[in-house]
Amino acid sequence: MKFGMSGGRMEDIRFLTGMGRYVDDIAPPGALHAVFLRSMQAHGAITRLDCAAAREMPGVHMVLTADDLRGMGVTIGMKGARLTNWDGTPGAGPERPVLADGVVRFVGEAVAMIVADTVAAAKDAAEAIVFDVDERPATLDLSADGAPIHPGAANTFAYDWRVGDDMAVEAALAASRHRITLQVLHNRIIVNAMEPRGAWADWQEGRLHLSVNGQGVWGQRNELARMLGLPRDAVRVTNPDVGGGFGMKAMTYPEYVPVAAAARALGRPVRWMSERTEAMLSDNAGRDLVAKAEIGFDENLKITAYHVNLVSNLGAYNSQFGQPIQSELFSKVLTGIYDIEVAAMRAVGVYTNTTPVDAYRGAGRPEAILTLERVMDEAARVLGADPFDLRTRNAIRRFPYRTVADELIDVGDFPRVIARAKDDADVAGFAARKAASAAKGLLRGMGVATYIECILGDATETARLTLDADGGATLYVGTQSNGQGHETVYARMVAAQTGLPPDMVRIVQGDSDAIPMGGGTGGSRSVTVQGTATKATVEAVIAGFSGFLQGEWGQDGVAFDGLAFGAPGTNLRLTLAEAAELARQKGRADLLDTSRKITLEGRSFPNGTHIAEVEIDPDTGALVMDRYTVVDDFGTLIAPELAIGQVHGGIAQGFGQAVTEGAVYDAQGQLLTASFMDYAMPRADDLPMIRFASEPVPSIMNPLGMKGCGEAGTVGALGAISNAVRDALAPAGVAHVDMPFTPARIWHWLQDAKGARHDAA
Fold first, then answer.
1. Roughly how many angstroms between the first and final C-alpha of the chain, as a whole number?
2. Out of 3-12, 403-412, 648-657, least confident range
3. Which of 92, 231, 495, 597 maximizes the CB count within 10 A of its CB?
């Protein structure tokens, strides 16, 4: 299935002219405003929480604490993801209270919610609350024997999860001709979606309506129903336009529960919108782990074994997906594109007095690929091997291929992708560019990273297509756009299969009343899974109308040619819109509303090669990314321009983590990077024009042949940029680098290397 993108993104006019309808734009008239009092201490027992004065402040309608919610019959404990340890015992499962319950465990944790006529009145009331904490030492490091932050725990240990055969790996490493070890630090990231989190709730006629800027509605609905003691059909959750999600907005957050409880109790709508610093303190963070990797090679430089030890920071609580990310999800691409038959990993999670960590673009796969590609690059350097040749000679060549983690990679041509990237990046001309940089007093480095990712999320999805009286159609989908262009993709997919004009295809998403179930958006699943469901639904529509017209016309062999139905040997022709009108006149309403549910047979595996070139000024440590080339295998490209946009955005987020971004806490657990004055987001002029090419091998795991593209840019970018920096600094004697590659860090590495050479002399 292919269609052109000459018409551009259909939703862009709405967004660019200020007509987007975001959650804060559509709160009901007269909605009260909620503000949260948040902890300024990272850890401690609450000794006093006196809200009496706040409740008497002008314009205040309600102040809620954990005890108040409990008294209203609200379940205050949120359940997060929980792993099973390698020995079969359950991982730790402390619940997260929606408002701090006796103890605060990170700076920014919500302690009380004030509901007032205005934000200003609510903030004034928050200042009137007497809130005292008996501070305890903040646990911040990643040692599993730190001071406990949850009752009943002997330390900060959360889980110990493993995959593979450790003994077999150690034996294979011991027998290897070469063994390379490398430790890789993965810096903590604050997601910083353009639109901060927000929600409003309304209680009407015994039903709750929560509107939230999320990535799906059904999980939110189910959790709200559980915590508020409501039947699921008494809760409606909607997602309007959403200004960026990146995984961070996929889960249910604590704030939504007291907002909903207040709306029910007051009988009035209640709205909340996060401010930027509030978001930086309370939004789930990303990454934050340490990986130690060891890889072995034989005399022919073929990989013999691979082992990874991870220690991951979960923050203060189990979040909705946090425990599986740096364990199960990491393992799905543990061995990358390489034919590694002996591999294992151990993943340990620990709690700290910091904001919880959860999904961020790629969720486990960027971390796995960065770790692997860094150690592969180090191996090439130590062994004197060409980094492209080392990767190519170890690439998987037989398919389907089952990995150590029991993932079945259906198809691929990894050597072809590497070769195309090498040509497109003009690797042959790198030496001349390096010399030109040196003539200007600059250090130039080139880094390559191959990647593979595993499409995640629910393999089941539904689609519903109604044919409307105005000659158009409405498609109901189970995914949620956060700015990716879903309206364009789905409308054009339907148009390509039905002959309807794309602007006559309306997309309905993010409404638990209108759509009974869906998998939401995450894990690069949206177009692959939803597109397959849409294709099946449209095929059912066409089949139904073909049979209907065959009876109406008295003709056999009625078929649809993409534009109209026709019967062979006749001049009978009707477009789908015309056929729908005939069905309406004949009372065949069953033909006008069609749904199908599909389940994909298996995952698809996007893959590619990224090549970055950087220039570094040794006098200042300043880094410029000068060239960037990526060749991807996304299988069938349904919407090429949108896919390229996703790649560009993913690379930008990878650059941000690699070069400019990093959350920093002090020894007391205070976030030092809680504003854009201190937390550096990547900017447009940080990035060169990105060269993109496609070398597709269509997937056989879905009828579209797609492989997904939403997270691929970030998955490959971290390794390419890191390896480029390592390459640039190696001639200056810098032996190890870790993200983020800020000017100050690079300058200090160079000074340390210079000092070491001086001492050696």
1. 66
2. 3-12
3. 92
Contacts of 602 (CB under 8 A, 6+ apart): 408, 410, 701
What value does the mean pLDDT take over residues 550-554? Answer: 96
CATH number, residue 530: 3.30.365.10
My answer on whether 412 and 540 are in the same domain is: no
| pLDDT score, position 221 | 97
Question: What is this structure's pTM?
Answer: 0.96
CB proximity list for 147: less than 8 A, separation 6 or greater: 136, 137, 139, 155, 156
> Is the domain of 641 the same as that of 739?
yes
Residue that terminates a domain, selected from 236, 263, 282: 282
Looking at the structure, tell me whether residues 654 and 746 fall in a common domain: yes
Same structural domain for residues 543 and 635?
A: no
Query: Do 55 and 117 touch, CB atoms closer than 8 A?
Result: no
**CA 198 – CA 21 distance, rounded (Å):** 13
- Is-contact 509 480, C-beta < 8 A? yes
Q: 111: part of which helix (H) or strand (E)?
A: strand 110-116
77 and 224: one domain? yes
CATH code at position 216: 3.90.1170.50
**For residue 446, which phi and psi values (nearest 5 degrees)?**
-120, 135
Stretch 394-408: mean pLDDT: 97
- Under DSSP, is residue 539 helix (H, G, I), strand (E, B) or coil? helix
Neighbours of 598 (CB within 10 A): 21
Are 269 and 294 found together in one domain? Answer: no
Looking at residue 132, its amino acid is D
What residues contact 718, with CB distance under 8 A and at least 6 apart?
366, 369, 370, 449, 654, 657, 658, 739
* Residue 601 CA to its chain's centroid (Å): 23
Q: Which helix (H) or strand (E) holds 675?
A: none
Q: Sign (positive/negative) of CA torsion 402, 404, 407, 409?
A: negative
Task: Identify the helix (H) or strand (E) that includes residue 688.
Answer: none
Composition of the chain by helix, strand, coil, percent to 5: 35, 25, 40
Residue 189 phi, psi dihedral angles, 5° rounding: -120, 140
Cα–Cα distance, 329 to 138 (Å, whole number) = 29
- 715: containing domain: 286-456+603-760
pLDDT at 1: 42
Lowest mean pLDDT among 404-413, 558-567, 609-618, 749-758: 749-758
- Does 390 reside within a domain? yes
- Is the peptide bond prior to 415 cis by the omega test (within 30 degrees of 0)? no
Whether residue 721 sits in one domain with residue 650: yes
pLDDT tens, residue by residue, 481-539: 998 999 999 999 999 999 999 999 999 999 999 999 999 999 899 999 999 999 999 99
Residue 152: per-residue pLDDT:
77
Mean pLDDT in residue range 693-713: 95
Q: Which pLDDT tens digit goes with each residue over 23-55?
A: 999 999 999 999 999 999 999 999 999 999 999
Q: Has residue 464 been placed in a domain?
A: yes
Number of domain units in the chain? 3
Query: Distances in Å between the alpha carbon of 386 and those of 141, 343, 448, 615, 679?
Result: 37, 23, 11, 21, 37
**Cis link prior to 387 (omega < 30° from 0)?**
no
The answer to whether 650 and 657 have CB atoms below 8 angstroms apart is no
Alpha carbon of residue 412 to chain centroid: 24
Name the burial class of residue 747, with classes exposed (0-12), middle (13-18) and buried (19+) by CB atoms within 10 angstroms of its CB: middle
Query: In sequence order, which residues have a C-beta less than 8 Å from that of residue 661 and are 6 or more positions away?
Result: 187, 189, 190, 679, 680, 681, 682, 740
Is there a domain that residue 715 lies in?
Answer: yes
Distance CA 125, CA 739 (A): 42
Q: Do 381 and 365 have their domain in common? A: yes
Final residue in a domain of this structure, among 267, 282, 297: 282
Structure tokens at 501: 């004009």
Token pair in block for residue 604: 């698809």
Residues 6+ apart with CB under 8 A from 439: none
Residue 167 lies inside a defined structural domain of this protein = no
